[in-house]
TrEMBL record:
Protein name: 8-amino-7-oxononanoate synthase
Catalytic activity: 6-carboxyhexanoyl-[ACP] + L-alanine + H(+) = (8S)-8-amino-7-oxononanoate + holo-[ACP] + CO2
Designated gene of the protein: bioF
Subunit structure: Homodimer.
Species lineage: Bacteria, Bacillati, Actinomycetota, Actinomycetes, Streptosporangiales
Family recorded in the similarity comment: Belongs to the class-II pyridoxal-phosphate-dependent aminotransferase family. BioF subfamily.
Listed Pfam families: Aminotran_1_2
GO biological process assignments: biotin biosynthetic process
């Protein structure tokens, strides 16, 4: 250390530590990749909402809101600490029991978000082994892979042969195959049965993220693993979010008792995070009641997604058959996606606009998310907006 200058070098000019952030922000702006936070009103600014993940239209349902209020009155506004320190409320225990029964899993552990559920599952189950992850997986899975310190192989989208090869060629004793059930932007379904066969053949666990399929896929919305006949299989682990079709907030990992044990003992996002807020647990329980009492809701959301995809395809906007409620409309450059989102807003419809790094370069898109509670008037307005976007594309 230079004792005379107290450790600094008197000859270097002072550095502005924020300068590089300004330069990077300008570069993102020039590339059409600037993200802005905009205020919104409780009614989505009066626009038809095709941007949220409220697939069953439950987030504003009075029964969920009342259940949240009741839970907060009884247990408090926050859960006050990690469940390992402050204990598990009967509300959390009931939610885990209900999620387990709904999905057909042996056990469930609730965390405070779906993001943390993926971080916990991938790190606790992947550490010290091989993780094989689909190229289309959600950012929370990618981050889990990075944090796991496992060797990670990213396989091409839905390429079961590449998964098998990665499992067969490994030196590691244990392996984890991880996939979204329904991919969050493309809206397509993973080949779950084939992946499961591969996992079983090579002694691996299969982790399936049901974020976009719980409450939407399967006859009663029990998810893609259940629909594929894999529920309760000891080598299958699931993560779910409570924040989309179930209209609340939070997440869970579901699987065999050994998996639950590993997460409670070693799942850092469970151990070192304050437990799910009681109000969220309460409203998720109310959502599960509604989904059980109204088995028609998942089918309704899926039918609306098919209608949106059909309307896009009719206008040359190339949507594929959606597996659940997510309908992508690929525009290509980020500027085209931004312009198309603006056209939708002018027609009174709010849509998601996805640009890199949320999607690969050249695949910027709109994401239309169907809801069970869209009316025929809404669908007509959306069709008008799709027509205008198709015309905009031709005129670019
Ligand atoms: C596939 C997928 N997994 C996990 C998550 C994270 O869930 P949550 O929003 O509950 O943290 C999301 C949500 O954005 C997602 O799309």
């Amino acid at each position: 250390m230079d004792m005379a200058t107290g450790g600094g070098d008197a000859h270097l000019p002072p550095v502005d530590p924020l300068a590089r952030l300004r330069v990077a922000a300008q570069a993102r702006e020039a590339a059409g990749l600037r993200r802005t936070l905009r205020p919104r009103t409780p009614d989505h600014d009066g626009l038809i909402d095709l941007a949220s993940n409220d697939y069953l239209g439950l987030s504003r349902d009075e029964r969920l809101v009342e259940a949240a209020v009741r839970a907060a009155r009884e247990w408090g506004a926050g859960s006050t600490g990690s469940r390992l320190v402050t204990g598990t409320t009967s509300l959390h225990a009931e939610l885990e029991d209900r999620l387990r029964a709904f999905t057909g899993a042996a056990g469930a552990l609730v965390l405070s978000s779906g993001y943390l559920a993926n971080l916990a599952a991938v790190t606790a189950l992947g550490a010290g082994g091989l993780v094989v992850s689909d190229a289309g997986n959600h950012a929370s899975i990618i981050d889990g892979c990075r944090l796991s310190r496992a060797r990670v192989t990213v396989t091409p989208h839905k390429d079961v042969e590449a998964v098998e090869k990665a499992l067969a060629d490994r030196d590691e004793e244990h392996a984890l195959v991880v996939t979204d059930a329904v991919f969050s932007v493309d809206g397509d379904l993973a080949p779950l049965r084939e992946l499961h066969e591969a996992a079983v053949r090579y002694g691996a666990l299969l982790l399936v993220d049901e974020a976009h399929s719980i409450g939407v896929v399967g006859e009663r919305g029990q998810g893609a693993v259940h629909a594929a006949g894999l529920a309760g299989h000891p080598s299958v682990v699931m993560t779910v979010t409570l924040s989309k079709a179930l209209g609340s907030q939070g997440g869970a990992v579901l699987g065999a008792p050994e998996v639950m044990r590993a997460l409670v003992d070693a799942g850092r996002p469970f151990i070192f995070d304050t437990g799910l807020a009681p109000s969220c647990a309460g409203s998720a329980l109310a959502a599960l009641d509604i989904v059980s009492d109204h088995p028609e809701l998942p089918g309704r959301a899926r039918r609306h997604a098919l209608a949106l995809a059909g309307a896009a395809a009719d206008r040359g906007l190339g949507a594929v058959d959606p597996a659940a409620a997510v309908v992508p409309v690929v525009l290509g450059p980020p500027q085209a996606a931004l312009a198309a989102a603006e056209v939708f807003a002018e027609h009174g419809v709010r849509v998601g606009c996805f640009r890199p790094p949320s999607v690969p370069s050249g695949r910027s898109c709109l994401r239309l998310t169907a809801r069970a509670n869209l009316g025929s008037d809404d669908l007509a307005v959306i069709a008008g907006a799709l027509t205008a976007v198709a015309e905009m594309k031709v005129n670019v």
